[in-house]
Each structure stands twice: as structure tokens, then as C-alpha cells.
Design a protein that fits this description.
The chain has 172 residues and is mainly beta. The chain has a single domain, classed as Gamma Fibrinogen, Chain A, domain 1 (Alpha-Beta Complex), CATH 3.90.215.10. Helices cover 9% and strands 29% of the residues. Strands 1, 2, 3, 4, 5, 6, 7 and 11 form an eight-stranded antiparallel sheet that branches. The chain is globular, with a radius of gyration of 15 Å.
């Protein structure tokens, strides 16, 4: 449904219509499209797995897993539904994004007083709250504290060394 690889050849700072319809190169970096995610997830229950690789000498990877994943229709701004979390992280980075509507720089649906998809630090479409705990559609190769990041809201720790991400949905 989504893949972002090292190199940042595809910009994820895109319009609402592009996120709705999908964009990118299926052989490298792409967003399948929120409308497709809605149609697929409305047909039956799915689970979601997000694999994340880090840009370090150990080639570390980790994952987030949810036993339920749905994306609502455009009429409700592609709101995300997530089930219970399991995964290799001790912290559920997507918990802060549960039941949030999708935002892009040209359509602000987040709960912040400003548009989280249109900031200098983490620009790109996502299911922002006020603003983020994880932003996987940021700018690859940005300075260490911006771009594609995981933000632990309790300890305030930030990891912006993400090198690649793959989000996959699977029918239950």
C-alpha cells in the first residue's frame, strides 16, 4: 500500500487529490491512494504491518503491527481505524494517530492550531493529531531532527534516522 525507500526520489509533499488517487513509482517509492485503501479495507477486515529500517551501521529494522486496519471514505477525510498493537517497538507510535483524519498541505484536518502537513519540520500527508508521533511521509535525507521520524511522546525521544518504510495490509 505504501513504500518509501532510501534516496527520496519521490516527494511525499503532495496534494489531497494525489494522496486520494495515489502517486509515485511502484518499483521504488509510492502511495497506493487513500481511496483505494478505503475500498479495499471496506470490503473485509485487514491487519496492518509497518516495517521500518534505520540508517545506521547495523542496518536495524523494527515493525508495528495492528490486528485491524481501516480507512474511511473521503466524505470523512479518510479517517484511520487501528486495532490492538503488537510489534517490536516497546512504544505504539501510531496510538497518537488513532481515529485521526488525513491531512495534506492543501487540506488541513488535524487537531492542531496550524496545518501539521505544511510545516518546515515534517511536511507531507498523514493522519495527524496535533501534530505527530510518527511521520513516515516526511522528507528523506532531511536534517536528523526533521523528515521521516518516530517521536516517543512520553519520554520525548525522537528518532529521525529512518531510511526506508513499507506499510502492508493483509486480509484477516
Amino acid at each position: 500500500m505504501f513504500q518509501k525507500r532510501v534516496g527520496g526520489s519521490v516527494s511525499f509533499y503532495e496534494t489531497w487529490n494525489n494522496y486520494r488517487d495515489g502517486f509515485g513509482d511502484l518499483n521504488s517509492s509510492f502511495w497506493l491512494g487513500n481511496e483505494k485503501l478505503h475500498v479495499i479495507s471496506a470490503q473485509r477486515d485487514h491487519q496492518l504491518r509497518i516495517d521500518i529500517w534505520f540508517n545506521n551501521t547495523n542496518d536495524d529494522s523494527a515493525y508495528l503491527h495492528y490486528n485491524l486496519f481501516r480507512v474511511s471514505s473521503e466524505a470523512t477525510q479518510y479517517e484511520i481505524t487501528l486495532g490492538s498493537y503488537t510489534g517490536s517497538f516497546e512504544y505504539d507510535y501510531m496510538d497518537y494517530h488513532r481515529d485521526m483524519k488525513f491531512s495534506t498541505y492543501d487540506q488541513d484536518n488535524d487537531l492542531a492550531g496550524h496545518n501539521c502537513a505544511h510545516t518546515q519540520y515534517h511536511p507531507g500527508g498523514w493522519w495527524f493529531n496535533g501534530c505527530l508521533s510518527v511521520q513516515l511521509n516526511g522528507i528523506y535525507g532531511a536534517p536528523w531532527d526533521t523528515g521521516i521520524c518516530l517521536f516517543q511522546r512520553i519520554t520525548r525521544d525522537k528518532n529521525c534516522s529512518v531510511a526506508a518504510v513499507v506499510m502492508k495490509m493483509k486480509p484477516l
